[in-house]
Hints:
By secondary structure, chain A is α+β, with helices and mostly antiparallel strands. Helix content of chain A is about 40%, strand content about 20%. Chain A has two domains: about 1-90, Arc Repressor Mutant, subunit A (Orthogonal Bundle), CATH 1.10.10.10; about 95-150, Ferric-uptake regulator, C-terminal dimerisarion domain (Dna Ligase, domain 1). Chains A and B meet through helix 1, helix 5 and strand 6 of A and helix 1, helix 5 and strand 6 of B. Chain B binds a DNA duplex through helix 2 and helix 4.
Amino acid sequence: MDGSPDLLRSVREEARRRGVRWTAQRQIVLETFLASHDHISVDELHHRVREIDHSVSAATVYRTINMLVDIGVAHKRNFGSSSASFESALTKQHHDHLVCTACGQIEEFHHDLIETLQDEVAKDRGFSLSHHRMELYGVCAACQLKGVIPRPAPVVETAES
Amino acid sequence: MDGSPDLLRSVREEARRRGVRWTAQRQIVLETFLASHDHISVDELHHRVREIDHSVSAATVYRTINMLVDIGVAHKRNFGSSSASFESALTKQHHDHLVCTACGQIEEFHHDLIETLQDEVAKDRGFSLSHHRMELYGVCAACQLKGVIPRPAPVVETAES
DNA sequence: ATGGATGCAAAGTATTTGCAACCTG
DNA sequence: CAGGTTGCAAATACTTTGCATCCAT
């Protein structure tokens, strides 16, 4: 979960292989990113990076994280909020997310059968799948105990299941 | 799929019931929205609304579509792009999406077993689920024939499945 | 040395909001 | 008539970009 020397090196090599130059800033951003557990926003990442080198700009963090997404090192996520979250594609297996709409807590899960069924759906439609995104939204156990209202507003006559 | 008088009326009534006032602008936005098939952006919706009444502002379209989401008439979606898409919650059953990353085409699908399994996952974790989002990204059959490169860039050593 | 990278500020997007005039209930 | 709604412009929030300078290769 921390940036092991091996992992750091292989990312750097992969970047170089693609003609991306390796700078001190990128090293710090990468290390900070890999050392961050779970999901992190650019803003949060920038804050943490500045604790190490206060001169690194937000633009550089944006440019670096985008580069990491390009080379497959980071995943970009978009939960409800307006800003994107990123997480390492290297230190974890593929997984999906359970998001608590009350406290914002995010749990990860993986379900082989669902994955298989998704592949089947895609195959049936002739799609060559590259990735997917599945997020389940609800109220977590803790928040239910705290008495948070579980459901949003009711709805007009619908065709929903 | 077009705004049938009944549907329009029941939405208006639901809005009024909540103390929302019904204006000419909201009527136009609602009619235009319901008459739009599939997924529409605020920008596109605004364009279409202005074909009927050129004086309706973007702010009003934003305010109205947000109101429609609040009362459960519209769903807000966030596919890859920076702007949100909306679709009617009334004229269609719940469904998920297959998105072609080459041409942008969006197909809908529904899979009962996947839904059931999602509910199970949530139950196992103690979540009270309110909604979910599942999008499968890949290249559609047509684009594969046209010879679009199916996959993005390769990746450094990963822990992916 | 050469072309990519950086910091800064400015520019872009997408969306929201303050305000005075206006209209619905 | 009271208070929600509108158009407009300004404000936000997030992200990208132009540019002169800098630095990795």
